[in-house]
């Protein structure tokens, strides 16, 4: 391991229930998730000196600290680019800890993304921001392309054309996620698997994406507690080392609409993340035992399998069709059910699942886990983690 | 869309001419008299035997432009069940395109008609295209072809086109609720271009590299004084989507958005109009079809190349 690899550890995870209507404020969700994570770690609010979240989160670090009774913060930071921030929050924590800036950093994300502001809707406000983001959005929103589903569909259509992948190939990702969620009592879709036929019969959102290619909209909060590898040894849970943590943004990068570069069949920003992760952790893709891949839309799971090096370019459909992403497959993917099956908490619930897989406490536990890969939002500047013992 | 407009149109077209409809009355002088009086046509060959003979006709002839009159169904008439225009009208009503306006009528007269001839008329469906975005609303053009026979001899033909459209603001093209671009000093030239009827591509003032979307500094050479060139307006579909859900301001679903590769080499996103969503293909040739929304906005749309 090099750089920050192995110097920090996740020592606590916490979450609220995942629902379609939390019936409480987003700040309350955040405070409850952080408190649950601290309890899991065996730490008190007074031990916390750092907080990290997404720029999109509506709960300021100050407000969360206030509710928790955290008396002082020495480090607070936020990451941009929607779900691409997820793993980078842990990277921020690991950096602060490695640099000696903070000792116990909690990363959180909480929202009423179903009962409140829904990201899947067409956001005119986003398209009219007087910023470089607003100018970027002007090349797609006025033309009618302005929902995440439509933005991904444009790439998915090209990917299908070039690789021969079909809607059924996308559907197999959804079926696997929902099969995993069906045995996860915390998942919103617990006990509710789907068939490929149901996927195919689900209505169009934006062709070529069906409804069941799209992740859920969820209310809920997730928090993870990060501290130094040394201190982790004395806490309540077996430490889960942050063996690697990286961010990536690619050439001619846009947010969800990087349509003007290359063949439109890859996720270069994720490749940049992957190269750093393998180098930091001193492993290759072949050493990964479980992958928690960001799955807001199924096509990007196939493209991640290729970009991360789990299979050659254009062959992810075969990898998936052969059962490669099942619990007993070559690469178990999203054993908790992912964001299609468990909940959409902007990727943070995936980090919690990665921690459980390393601890050996997951509901759909994979045998002999040494390295878990977790990825953050796709189609945007993003991030990733390798968690391990 | 639950109504398979193109599928049904294909069947109707394949069925060819419907059963002929007979004229209620033969070509007759009283009706000619009324018609020429109403239209103010004083040509005597329609009313005077002598004048008609002097002009080389065997007797009085009917004004050719009256051709539709002879087979009109009358005040309480109904179109036959197998009438192609009737079938397509009912289908488009069902699909929500409830309003109609005639847009084209081209008639061809093979010869003059004489008093006493008894006509029959057939109708065939020639073409159905849509959905098209028009000033009236989104709609479908239905083109039929009528042939009038005297005995077995075709004496006149007519190509007739109607627009069946969904009226109202919801069906209007991008309008007051259209999403407007954020225009910066770097991108104003593009939007000024569309408003002026030009599709402009940023071109580096130093190294000449073309770039879309545009920005303030050339990523290739670092120069920061870009100009632009005019696009030919020709390109091919590099990728596309058909949007169904959720609703988008100023748009009626389903609609197509295409990522077009211009022949100059850059890619550009735009609405793809004038095409059935089911017929769009990657690689399809398209041409620019700037859509003026209002004084402040003209969108860089595309349509199939002609």
List keywords for this structure.
heterodimer, A: 389 residues, alpha/beta, Peroxisomal Thiolase, Chain A, domain 1, 3 domains, two-stranded antiparallel sheet, B: 306 residues, alpha+beta, Thiol Ester Dehydrase, Chain A, 2 domains, five-stranded antiparallel β-sheet, 17% helix, 37% strand, elongated
Describe this structure in words.
The complex is a heterodimer of chains A (389) and B (306). Chain A is of the alpha/beta class and 389 residues long. Chain A has 14 helices and eleven strands. Chain A has helices at residues 26-41, 61-68, 86-98, 124-127, 132-137, 148-163, 167-181, 196-201, 229-232, 268-281, 299-307, 316-321, 338-341, 348-359; strands spanning 8-15, 50-54, 75-79, 104-112, 204-207, 209-210, 219-228, 240-248, 290-292, 371-375, 382-388. Chain A is globular. Chain B has helices spanning 5-15, 29-39, 49-54, 67-70, 84-94, 188-195; strands at 21-22, 61-62, 99-109, 113-114, 119-134, 137-150, 153-165, 200-203, 210-211, 227-230, 234-243, 255-262, 267-272, 285-294, 297-304. Chain B folds into two domains: 5-168, Hotdog Thioesterase (Thiol Ester Dehydrase, Chain A, Roll); 188-304, no CATH class. In chain B, strand 6 (137-150) and strand 7 (153-165) form a beta hairpin. The longest helix of chain B has 11 residues, at 5-15. The model of chain B is unreliable at 170-174 (pLDDT under 50). In chain B, helix 1 runs antiparallel to helix 5. Chain B is elongated. The A-B interface holds A 120-122, 124, 127-131, 134-147, 150, 153-155, 157-158, 161, 203-208, 252, 257, 259-260, 264 and B 174, 178-184, 186-187, 212-213, 219, 238-251, 254-255, 257, 259, 266-271, 277, 282, 297, 299-301.
Work out the helicity level of chain B.
10-25%
Ranges of chain A where pLDDT stays below 50 over 5 or more residues in a row are none
Structural class of chain A: alpha/beta
Helix tally of chain B equals 6
- Mind telling me the C-alpha Rg of chain B? 27 Å
| Share of residues in strands of chain B | 35-45%
- Compute the number of strand runs of chain B: 15
Just give the CATH class of the largest domain in chain A: Alpha Beta
What is the N-to-C order of secondary-structure elements of chain A (H for helix, E for strand)? EHEHEHEHHHHHEEEHEHEHHHHEE
Which spans of chain B of ≥5 residues are poorly predicted at pLDDT below 50? 170-174
């Amino acid at each position: 391991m090099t750089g920050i690899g192995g110097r920090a550890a996740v020592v606590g995870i916490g979450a609220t229930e995942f629902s379609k209507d939390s019936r409480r404020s987003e700040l309350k969700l955040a405070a409850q998730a952080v408190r649950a994570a601290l309890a899991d770690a065996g730490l008190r609010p007074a031990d916390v000196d750092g907080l990290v979240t997404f720029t999109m989160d509506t709960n300021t670090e100050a407000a969360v600290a206030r509710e928790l009774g955290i008396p002082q913060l020495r480090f607070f930071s936020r990451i941009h680019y929607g779900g691409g921030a997820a793993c980078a929050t842990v990277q921020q924590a690991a950096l602060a800890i490695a640099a000696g800036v903070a000792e116990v950093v909690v990363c959180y994300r909480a929202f009423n993304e179903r009962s409140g502001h829904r990201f899947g809707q067409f956001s005119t406000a986003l398209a009219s921001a007087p910023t470089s983001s607003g100018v970027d959005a002007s090349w797609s929103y006025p033309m009618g392309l302005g929902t995440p589903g439509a933005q991904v569909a444009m790439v998915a259509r090209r990917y299908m054309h070039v690789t021969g992948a079909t809607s059924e190939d996308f559907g197999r990702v959804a079926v696997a996620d929902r099969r995993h969620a069906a045995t996860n009592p915390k998942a919103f879709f617990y006990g509710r698997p789907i068939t490929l036929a149901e996927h195919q019969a689900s209505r169009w959102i934006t062709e070529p994406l069906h409804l069941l290619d799209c992740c859920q909209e969820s209310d809920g909060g997730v928090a993870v507690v990060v501290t130094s590898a040394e201190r982790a040894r004395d806490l309540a849970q077996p430490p889960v080392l942050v063996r690697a943590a990286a961010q990536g943004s690619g050439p001619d990068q846009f947010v969800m609409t990087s349509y003007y570069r290359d063949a439109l069949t890859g996720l270069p920003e994720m490749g940049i993340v992957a190269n750093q992760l393998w180098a930091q952790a001193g492993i290759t893709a072949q050493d990964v035992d479980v992958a928690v891949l960001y799955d807001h839309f199924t096509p990007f799971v196939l493209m991640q399998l290729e970009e991360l090096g789990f299979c050659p370019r254009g062959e992810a459909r075969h990898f998936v069709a052969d059962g490669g992403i099942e619990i007993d497959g070559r690469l178990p993917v999203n054993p908790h059910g992912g964001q299609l099956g468990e909940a959409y908490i902007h990727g943070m619930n995936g980090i919690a699942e990665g921690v459980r897989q390393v601890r050996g406490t997951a509901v759909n536990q994979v045998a002999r886990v040494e390295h878990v890969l977790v990825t953050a939002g796709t189609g945007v500047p993003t991030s990733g983690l390798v968690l391990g013992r | 869309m639950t109504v398979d407009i193109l599928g049904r149109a294909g069947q109707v077209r394949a069925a060819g001419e419907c059963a002929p409809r007979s004229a209620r009355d033969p070509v007759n002088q009283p009706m000619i008299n009324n018609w020429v009086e109403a239209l103010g046509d004083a040509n005597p060959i329609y009313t005077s035997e002598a004048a008609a003979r002097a002009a080389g006709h065997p007797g009085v002839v009917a004004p050719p432009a009256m051709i539709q009159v002879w087979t009109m169904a009358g005040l309480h008439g109904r179109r036959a069940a197998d009438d192609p225009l009737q079938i397509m009208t009912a289908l488009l009503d069902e699909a929500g395109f409830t309003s109609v306006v005639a847009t084209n009528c081209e008639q061809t007269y093979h010869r003059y008609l004489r008093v006493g001839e008894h006509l029959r008329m057939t109708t065939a469906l020639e073409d159905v295209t849509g959905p098209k975005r028009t000033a009236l609303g989104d709609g479908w053009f239905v083109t039929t072809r009528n042939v009038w026979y005297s005995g077995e001899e075709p004496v006149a033909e007519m190509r007739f086109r109607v627009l069946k459209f969904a009226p109202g603001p919801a069906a209007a093209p991008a309008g007051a609720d259209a999403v407007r671009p954020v225009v910066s000093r770097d991108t104003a030239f593009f939007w000024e271009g569309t408003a002026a009827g030009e599709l402009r591509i940023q071109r580096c003032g130093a190294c000449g590299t073309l770039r879309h979307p545009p920005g303030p500094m050339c990523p290739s050479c670092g120069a920061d004084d870009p100009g632009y060139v005019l696009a030919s307006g020709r390109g091919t579909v590099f990728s596309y989507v058909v949007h169904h859900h959720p609703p988008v301001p100023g748009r009626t679903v389903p609609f197509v958005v295409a990522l077009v590769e211009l022949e100059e080499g850059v890619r550009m996103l735009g609405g793809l109009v004038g095409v059935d969503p089911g017929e769009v293909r990657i690689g399809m040739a398209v041409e620019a079809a700037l859509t003026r929304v209002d004084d402040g906005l003209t969108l860089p749309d595309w349509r199939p190349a002609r």
